[in-house]
TrEMBL record:
One of its GO terms (biological process) is lipoprotein localization to outer membrane. GO terms for cellular component: plasma membrane protein complex. It comes from the Bacteria. Its main location: membrane. Residues 236-360 form the ABC3 transporter permease C-terminal domain. This is ABC transporter, permease.
Length: 370
């Protein structure tokens, strides 16, 4: 194990040559910052969406045909409620209203706790409406008439992952806005007390009505994870950028070893440093550089994502036409951070130690002359 004096000498030598290591430090910090930011945003959004799905009933049933959604009625509710293992079935009104003046789609959700003439809107909806001076009352336009509804309140900012583009209305008002009949539903919420029976009951619902889609909580959570792991290929693009930057960084590190440092290693060998000492010296120096850059990159990413809410970068994942002022929930996946460390810091050290070892075992007289 290197002595205290040896470590101090390695650190002093590092600070002496700090300009040579500055480029590597900055590039590596940037790589870790980008990758950590993407992972933090992805994990945070996955966590919030997963929690919202877990708050829903066991199975969500939707009627589809040729890829389009069709209403459901009381007959569907009755038939599904008779399946063994189902404790309750709730019909839900849910759909989208086109706001032509802004060319936006609002998510309309039925909420029985609201009166017929009032509604609750999300933060993004509120901003879009305010731009056209809809502050107290909003007018829904459909093929038959204009429906005026009072804006009762704004949904809390903490619920923006779900409510940003949402309008909550009394179910009957929501039906009128969406052009549905009074006995129709957009989907069914099916509650199954026994988690082990959920998959079987979902299959029974599909057998009963082959045109419906029965999505369990597990399926919905799996879809969310898949979406945010591979969102539009953006993560892969960022990964390629980071990989190219990383190889530029490694090239810089190797050129440092084969440049002026080659003569430095030869002088140290002539002063009595053995090969093991040379490797230990380079290992200490580059461990300090890589670990400092890694910790700085992770810390900056944490502040950028969870303090400043990841401006610009979060829009890649949210993908909404409405401005979203979502507050990202702090979620840190230690396993993924360890993978960044494993595939970042370890190669960084290896690409420096191996050239240093190769020079150290070579002809020192030639290295000094060069």
């Amino acid at each position: 194990m290197p002595s205290k004096n040896f470590v101090e000498y390695a650190i002093l030598l590092l600070f002496k040559d700090r300009n040579d290591h500055l480029f590597s430090f900055l590039i590596f910090s940037f790589i870790v910052f980008i990758l950590s930011s993407v992972l933090f945003i992805s994990d945070s959004l996955q966590y919030d969406l997963t929690q919202s799905i877990k708050a829903q009933p066991s199975i969500v049933v939707e009627n589809t045909s040729a890829g389009r959604a069709y209403p459901m009625h009381e007959g569907h509710v009755y038939d599904v409620s008779k399946i063994t293992g189902v404790s309750s079935v709730e019909g839900v009104v849910d759909g989208y209203h086109y706001f032509a003046q802004k060319r936006l789609w609002f998510h309309v959700i039925g909420d029985a706790s609201l009166a017929k003439g009032e509604m609750v809107i999300g933060q993004g909806v509120q901003k879009a409406m305010a731009e056209l001076y809809y502050k107290d009352v909003f007018h829904f336009l459909n093929e038959e008439r204009m429906i005026a509804v009072k804006i009762d309140k704004i949904a809390p900012k903490g619920t923006n992952i779900i409510s940003n583009d949402a309008i909550y209305l009394n179910p009957n008002t929501a039906r009128a806005v969406l052009g549905m009949e009074m006995d129709e539903y957009s989907k069914l919420y099916v509650t199954v007390p026994n988690p082990n029976e959920v998959s079987e009951i979902a299959l029974k619902i599909v057998e009963l009505y082959p045109s419906v889609k029965a999505t369990s909580q597990a399926d919905a959570i799996g879809a969310v994870r898949h979406l945010y792991y591979y969102k539009g290929g953006i993560f892969m693009i960022l990964y390629v950028i980071a990989l190219v930057s990383f190889f530029i960084l490694l090239k810089n590190q190797i050129s440092l070893v084969y440049g002026e440092k080659k003569k430095e290693i030869a002088i140290l060998r002539s002063l009595g440093f053995c090969i093991k000492d040379i490797i230990a010296l380079k290992f200490i120096q580059n461990t300090v550089v890589s670990m400092s850059a890694y910790l700085l990159g992770v810390a900056l990413a944490y502040v950028y994502v969870f303090v400043f809410n990841a401006p610009y970068l979060r829009n890649i994942f949210l993908g909404s036409e409405l401005e979203n002022s979502i507050s990202l929930t702090p979620v840190v996946d230690i396993n993924l951070l360890f993978l960044i460390f494993l595939f970042g810091v370890i190669p960084f050290l290896a690409f420096v130690i191996l050239p240093a070892w190769k020079i150290a075992i070579g002809d020192m007289s030639e290295a000094v002359k060069s």
